[in-house]
Amino acid sequence: MTVKRREFITGVSAAMSAGLLLPAASWAKTGMSRSLTLGEMQVTTLSDGHLTLPRSLLFASLDPEAVDQILQARGIAAGPMHPPLNVTLLRHAGRLVLFDAGSGPGFQNTAGQLTAALDAAGVTPDEISHVVFTHCHPDHLWGVLDDFDDPLFPNAQYLMGEAEWAYWFDPNTASTISGDRASMAVGALRRLEVMEERLSRFGDGQEILPGVAAHASHGHTPGHMSFELRDGQQSLLIGGDAIGNHHVSFAQPEWAIGTDQDANLAAKTRLRLLDMLSHDQMQLIGYHLPKGGIGRVEKAPTGYRFISSFEE
Fold it and tell me: Which of 4, 105, 189, 260 is the most buried (most CB within 10 A)?
């Protein structure tokens, strides 16, 4: 596949900068999915389940009392964190495109539910035409292989940022990454080797598919990418893990998060994206954000807040 470069991401449309209103998106909720229509694009988030993570993994370097204050204000109970997993499906121009592939059967037993969600959405894995990756962490990449270690999406083309590919495909990464992440590097390399012949790589600002542009959002991993979907004046950002939670990272975006490989760079990226999203009133899909991950960002007296497009 040939990836063509053109100037695509300019912040958001000039119409928004001029104060014009975007057409309202239409929304739907069904079972394990949340959907919206963006011009000719049909966008659905599918649940791959959720993770169970100790708070120390996320917030070890932060003041526990300050973290608890933020979490309690958002109704989050004490104990482990249970971030949801939102895989995005795009139907557009005859393509069925997945953004990330979920966890698959080999990560956590509360995850790996993408095939059931696809089935509920009336999609079979062999119908997926493209799988686009934000980054190579297990809950985003490992789902490309099924229970028998065969490709789950046999007819798909794979797309990944050049820097992300180079980092995880390097056999030295497993020995140079921090010890608790070495198994992630080994698992990533094994899957990249399976995908190599069908994988195209791209850089920041490239239109990788019609109406889909890559947006560098490094820090969570060395080559993490987000993706802007645009149809006319309507747009949204598939943010992956660049903004990895709806509480601390919104209220105090400059604070270090333990799952970010380069915490300082990740914080700078997070601030930049939150400022862009709130200023331009651009929709956001976050991989670990609640209620399907679809919503918008608004400024708060301190920091920002996530406003879900769906209320339970």
Answer: 260
